[in-house]
Amino acid sequence: MARRTTKSEEQQLEELEELRCAVESLISQIPEDPDALFDFHVSSPCPDCEFAALVEKVNNLLRSARRAVAETRRKSHFLSRAIEDLNGEVAVRKRAEEKLTELNLKTQAVVDSAGEGILTFDREGRVLESNAAAHAAFRRSEQEMAGLTFRDLFASAEGFEAPDGGDWTQVLDPSGEAECIRSDGTVFPAVISLGKFELGGEVTHTVVIRDVTEYREIQSRLCQSLKLESIGQLAAGMAHEINTPTQFVSDNVQFLQESFGDILRVLDPLLQGTEDSAERTVERMRAIAEEADLEFLLEEIPAALSQSVGGIAAIADIVRAMKEFSHPGSSDKSRVDLGRAIENTVTVARNEWKYVAEVEVDLPEDLPEVMCYEGEINQVLLNLIVNAAHALEESSHSREDKGRIEIRAAHAGDWVELRVADNAGGIPSHLQDRIFDPFFTTKQVGKGTGQGLAIARSVVVDKHGGELLLEESSDAGTTFLIRLPIGED
Q1: Phi/psi of residue 74, nearest 5 degrees
Q2: Which of 446, 466, 447, 450 is closest to 458 using CA atoms?
Q3: Tens digit of pLDDT for each residue in 295-331?
Q4: Collapsing DSSP states into helix, strand and coil, what is residue 193?
């Protein structure tokens, strides 16, 4: 049996010393900079010793560590970039939210400071939002407005039932006037406009309203002021129109007074009851009759009476026309005989046109009465007639005879049409688009204010729902068309 050999202590000490030296060599190769570890490679001091395998394992671990660190760094770099991008996106979103909040605040401030009332409604007609002007117009707070329906706010919606899925806004004029209801039940006029948008599948209606109560009051006062101004301008002509029949009535009455004295003288012998014979009395009466020209008196007295009656009737017509024309009228619309209104206006304006034009009035017998404000329609007619007369006066130098003003009325379905035409030569084409503008006038300075046609159009269009159009204007003349709805009581 072979004997096992063992290393001596000296050999073991030598190997331990070699291992210590190898470890010290390995430690001395480790760089102080941590980043240098990625390029660090361990070299074995004794390639053939057992320690070389351990060094190789260390190098393998270092290579694996380098790969892991590189991957970690790559991922860390990617993560850092992602975090930076995310932070940037968060910052952008934060700035966008801040701007959106600022924009919402500005938008709300603009809406709340708007002079018009702005309301939004859902598909069923319930109030969603309203601004301060709407609260003031309807005299309701924001809390009171919330949840109300269009039936609570618009008089035209009374009794209206929208069909399933139907549009409730059809009860309102898309761009016109509406009668709105305040919290106390009173009704006020407003000009409205409608809008509609869809967001997230939900339909929202917008209604913008402007309370025109004060405007209507100012307009009414202005119309009355213009009417009184017109009457003042026509006063001298009216005085002349009244003076002419008054003068011949006065002359006829004086003639009748003198004639009555002459007739009494003729009858005096008969009335005295003298003792003269009848034959003597007759002779005296004949002599006095011949002296007084009784035959002439008997012919002229009936004529004088007839003229006086006619003159008094003319005065009465003028006074009646002036009285009816200048009457302020009712605050509500009423049934009006337009034929009579036209005749009154022609009479009142007679002194404006009688020297420059012949007036022809064509009124059908079946012309229906119209629901309107009589005083304001009178003012519109007066304005058109006087404008035609002034135009004929300005163009009178170009013709020998008087001009012509034609006033025609016609029944057209649910409307009555009035036309006022003249043959004064027309309005220049470049001015036709401006004639209804406020303060625009083609008359001489001091003769026209430029408000007549503007107010006339406002009266016809805004207050009566009608039309006032320049139907025709050429060298042959000008025709204005007034269309008024007949309306219901």
Answers
A1: -60, -50
A2: 466
A3: 887 888 888 888 888 888 878 877 877 777 666 666 6
A4: strand
Residue type, 374: E
The 10s digit of each residue's pLDDT in 44-62 is: 555 665 666 766 776 777 7
- CA dist 53 and 60 (Å) reads 11
Spatial separation of the C-alpha atoms in residues 172 and 207, rounded to whole Å: 10
Phi-psi region of 103 (alpha: psi -120 to 50; beta: other; left: phi over 0): alpha
pLDDT at 1: 44
Contacts of 255 (CB under 8 A, 6+ apart): 300, 304
Instruction: Report d(CA 146, CA 310) in Å as an integer.
Output: 69
First-to-last C-alpha distance (Å) of the chain: 145
Residue 178, SS3 per DSSP: strand
Give 56's contacts (C-beta < 8 A, 6+ positions apart): 44
Judging by beta carbons within 10 Å of its beta carbon (0-12, 13-18, 19+), is residue 78 exposed, middle or buried? exposed
The structure tokens 């219901």 sit at 488
The CA–CA distances, whole Å, from 481 to 313, 433, 470, 472 equal 33, 15, 6, 9
What is residue 475's predicted lDDT score, i.e. its pLDDT? 75
What does residue 109 show for φ and ψ, rounded to 5 degrees?
A: -65, -40
* Rounded Cα distance, 298 and 305, in Å: 11
In whole angstroms, give the CA distance from residue 317 to residue 323: 10
The dihedral formed by the CA atoms of 182, 185, 188 and 194, expressed in degrees to the nearest 10 = 60
R_g over Cα of the chain: 53
Distance CA 374, CA 333 (A): 8
* Residues of the chain scoring pLDDT < 70: 1-8, 12, 15-16, 18-20, 22-52, 54-55, 58, 159-166, 173-175, 223-224, 226-238, 269-271, 273-278, 325-331, 398, 438-451, 489
Structure tokens at 325: 């024309």
Q: How many helices (H) and strands (E) does the chain have?
A: 12, 12
Judged by DSSP in three states, 353 sits in helix
Cβ neighbours for 144, distance < 8 A, ≥ 6 positions apart: 183
Separation of alpha carbons 346 and 407, rounded Å: 9
The burial class, CB within 10 Å (0-12 / 13-18 / 19+), for 210 is middle
Question: 444: number of CA atoms within 13 Å, CB side?
Answer: 5
**How many angstroms separate the CA atoms of 56 and 64, rounded?**
12
Sequence-distant (≥ 6) Cβ neighbours of residue 223 within 8 angstroms = 375, 376, 379, 455, 459
Which long-range CB contacts under 8 A does 393-398 form with residues at least 24 apart? Answer: 393/355, 393/356, 394/424, 395/424, 395/425, 396/356, 398/425
